[in-house]
Amino acid sequence: LFSSGLDEMIALICRTFLEVGDESLQPWPTYPEYQLQAAIAGATTVNAAVTPATGLIDLDDLAAHITAKTKVIWLCNPNNPTGTYLPISQIAQFMKRVPADVLVVVDEAYIDFVADVPNPSALSLVTQFNNLLVMRTFSKLYGLANFRVGFSIVPQRVIAKMQNVRLPYNISGISQTAALAAWQDQAFTQTVKQQLLTARQQWSAFFEANHIQHYASQTNFMLYQVADPQALGAFLKQHGYLVRDSMVPGWIRQSFGTPAQDAEMRQLLL
């Protein structure tokens, strides 16, 4: 099922499966659009824990928060904004603890950046669990954020319901052409991925060397702890760099740039 970016897909899921009195369950911090769209649908968002020391989603705590009112569970993997990744084996074990009438949404917007993990996607679990939906996008590795192309692998039992709610003509012909061209140019995407992996290794080494608390990222950004995120954010903005300084209290989320930009950023942070 295709959508105009994953934000439309999230809205579509909420319009289809949530109503007043329902609960939408998620770890926190995570992508805020889940909570926004759940609220628009009239549902209540329940937050489970992310392990402070590692930034990993606590699946035991998530399972403990499932109630009779839970209708949708969100798993952003790798998670935004922590950047951390859950192995598929752990997600499979979690799925066994979820009631069959609760939809689990695995958001894999950043899955293409995962390294050193064979077959990191939860797509392999779709045939095992008919309450699992996996979301993907062309906005990240493929660089087509402005074209708004997202898609989901949807359980057969629910796709008709979602099609009934989906707006017609949601992806333009230009966006479809761009997505197809990007998909066919895997050599370019692999080059981009290798550049990002190099940047990620350099930033990890920098944070380690300077004793800056950070989470092990499997994305194109890193989350790190600072004394005053807003002050640092304003300082970096004066030098031409924009970072997320208010997503998580006490932390900054920073995307990777070009090698020259990253080198300058590291000098500014010292």
Automatic annotation (TrEMBL):
Gene3D superfamilies: Aspartate Aminotransferase, domain 1 (3.90.1150.10), Type I PLP-dependent aspartate aminotransferase-like (Major domain) (3.40.640.10). The keyword Transferase applies. It holds the Pfam family Aminotran_1_2. Keywords: Amino-acid biosynthesis, Aminotransferase, Histidine biosynthesis, Pyridoxal phosphate, Transferase. One of its GO terms (biological process) is L-histidine biosynthetic process. CDD domains: AAT_like. The keyword Transferase applies. This is Histidinol-phosphate aminotransferase. It comes from Lacticaseibacillus paracasei subsp. paracasei Lpp126.
